[in-house]
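User: Teach me something about this protein's shape.
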Amino acid sequence: MSEQKNWVYTPKKINIKRGIGYGLTDLMGGGWNNIVSGVIFAFVLSQGISPAFAGAITGIGRIFDALFSLFFGSITDGFYRTSLGKRFGRRHFFMLIGGVLFAVLFPLFWVQSDDWRYYLVVYIAIELVIAMILIAWETLPTEMTNDYKLRTVLSGSRMFISATGTAIVFIVLAVLKRMQNPDAYLITGIIWTVIFVVAIFISYRATWERPLTPEFIKELDSRPTMSVGEMLSKMVHDYCSTFKNKAFRQHLAIYLLSFTGKDFYSTMLPTFIICCIQGAQGDWPWTLQALSIFGILSTLAAAKLMISHGPRFLYSLSYLAIIVTMVGYAAVWFLNVSNPLIMLIIISVVYQLARGILEFTPWNVFPFIPDIDRMITRGDRAGIYAAVMTFFRKSTGAVASWIAGIVLAEMGFNSKTMLDAATTPFDIQNGIVLMFFIGPVILIAAAFLLSTRFKLNRETHEILKNEMERLENGGSKKDVTPASKKVAEELTGHPYDKLWPDKPIL
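Assistant: First, the predicted structure itself:
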């Protein structure tokens, strides 16, 4: 048995240090999501490429990513059968090869070109490589331990590291733009590459996988194997079945609407600042985005408020704050404020505080969703619900930039000639402001309205959990209390007599 194999499959004591080591890969995870929504569109526009094509790059790339992700998880599951999987680990092998490919591909995206097809091909390749890394990496808490608290240590480190990744992305770019470096994007891309690759390989070395004991191999081999067609059919069936869960339908709609609104803000902010605000400098959009570091503070506050006030309060707080900030941005342009940077910084700090709460809430509500499904099906399908959320988020993740690009092109925006507020006609500025304001506001307002009818919280979940425990212990459905019946029906969207079937629904 080789030293490499011994290391990959040797469990170690999980502590804060190893938790951080695991979580470091989310520097790339959090950073990349913000690069996609907040940087790529602006960079491609700066190359003189049409906004319609600039928006299409991330839109098409994310579709490829979403489809690839559906199947790649199953590939890593069965990779233990190969000699490479046995030596390097069925998850670690893809982190290793993905890290190498990322180091090669990522800097290539920031090379100057006037051909949008070049950026499309490189972007798709990067998305697939990142999916390869993250899908393998996200399974590691389950591989490393079966202890709930220890898994929390591993997963909990991600939240703050991801927020740090977001800030790093924009701080580096802001500094180089401030220096008026003509190769700011390329140099920034190289710096990002170094930071992300180092983080990936630290995670690679700091983690391990469940040993391939004869018992574990027997367990893995006992799982049914399916053809691609059978896998696709089952996946579609499983995905569609989640929409029978009323609370999940609401949760998913709130999640997608609010996050797409956030993406619209990130996509349009650079164009709004540079082309609409008089006297704006090239570093201003990235300086404002770097204020995302404040999101860490609001995330800490949100953790306490989730317990004391519930998700509906957090949704309302973040959504209303974001709508107010969008009014503030529009007012800075409309009133032609004499010293706009100070006002923009104040508004952006408030926005980033609200964004931190917005990003915290959905994935902290999510753990309660599978329990509602269990009331409907008596099954354990947390993985399916997580897959649905991830799939739809990836599918909609670049919608904002795609739509923004098309609308900008239709209104006559020219990225080669409209380089600042002085060179951008007033009617074009007016259109940009309306897009920047209306896009996020409509989406966030829709999410806010849905959130006011969201019934899932700590109290209703506790009532539902107690009812399931009563039924599981042999209690009769006839003995249900009016309060438990009402909560169960409100959360599931089904009559009580249709819930908790005699046999699990697979």
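Now, about its shape. Residues 148-178 form the longest helix (31 residues). The two ends are 40 Å apart (CA to CA). If you'd like, I can walk through any region in more detail.
User: That's plenty for now, thanks!
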